Amino acid sequence: MIIAAGALSGCTTPAPTSGTGTPTASTPGTTKTPTGANAKASVTQSGDTITITGTKTDDDNDQLSEQFTLTQGTYIYTFSNTGSALGNTFIASVDSPDGDLYEAVSLGDSSGMGYIAVDPDGFWAKPGPAVLSVGYGGTYTMTISKPTTGDAPPVTLTGQPRETAVKAVNLNAGPVTINVRHNGYSSDQQGTTMVSLHKVDNAKSVSLDGAWIMDETGQATGTVAEPGLYVFSVSFRAHTTGEATLTQ
User: Fold this and answer.
1) Residue 55, SS3 per DSSP
2) What DSSP line would sit under 91-125, residue for residue?
3) Do 37 and 89 lie in a common domain?
4) Containing domain of residue 226, as a range?
5) Which of 38, 104, 174, 243 is most buried by a 10 A CB count?
6) pLDDT of residue 13
7) pLDDT at 11
8) Average pLDDT over the chain, rounded to an integer
């Protein structure tokens, strides 16, 4: 497992769920295989809702999940982990079966949330089979799902230092503004808050001017080309709490 992206973690708001029908276990992967004493983590998938559960017993080797299937679009994920050392530390990523990094799920938090933009033309996650690769953890559960409903603006997300907060929002075509405020800000403490918008049905992002906010306050602006359901994500800077409000 190679992780080369920022942590997406810390907010425990439940992710929206989608999909119907009876969950069925996914087909075990055939390309990557777990090493050491770790059995594969169990996966159930119903439509675009995926649940992964596992217990890591061998700290010297990564634990992989059974394979699951990602389709084009934007997913929201949540995870929680208990029973590992160092404050229930959880280090994990969603990868291709060949080991290509799709999303750094956690770089050390015990719970959190984030998003996965699955785009055949994108740089990271691609449609098709995927696995969860756990480098460090105890007993954990992760849910990955495409939202089917969202809130109307204005929408405010709050977070602690290094947290990521995510919510599905319904947007109209036209201008969009995201105002960010940091609490307890000090210019001596470096860090950046990042905001993004991705369409749920195709994972395409809205181009935002000012999406990286380093000052006490900041504003990102852009234009929504197509109305529909989007995933609004905020990854808060280190050292300070913050809030981000999306208006349209």
Assistant:
1) strand
2) EEEEE-TT--EEEEEEES-SEEEEEEEE-TTSSS-
3) yes
4) 155-247
5) 104
6) 35
7) 37
8) 87
In a domain, 135, yes or no: yes
For residue 4, is it within any domain? Answer: no
Residue 199 pairs in a beta bridge with: 230
List the end-to-end C-alpha distance of the chain, in Å, as a whole number: 40
Using CA of residue 23, residue 200, residue 144, residue 247, what is the dihedral sign? negative
Total tally of structural domains belonging to the chain: 2
pTM (two decimals) = 0.85
Residues 107, 178, single domain; the answer is no
Report yes or no on 235 lying in a domain: yes
Counting as low any pLDDT under 70, the low residues of the chain are 1-36
Q: What's the pLDDT at 33?
A: 60
Helix/strand number for the chain, H first, E second: 1, 21
Q: How many CB atoms lie within 10 A of CB 202?
A: 16
CA separation for the pair 164, 166 (Å, rounded) = 7
Structure tokens at 195: 């905001």
* Among candidate residues 242, 211, 205, the one with its CA nearest the CA of residue 226: 205
Which residue is listed with tokens 């109209």? Answer: 172
- Other C-beta atoms within 10 Å of 218: how many? 19
- pLDDT one-digit tens code per residue, 157-182: 999 988 999 999 999 999 999 999 99
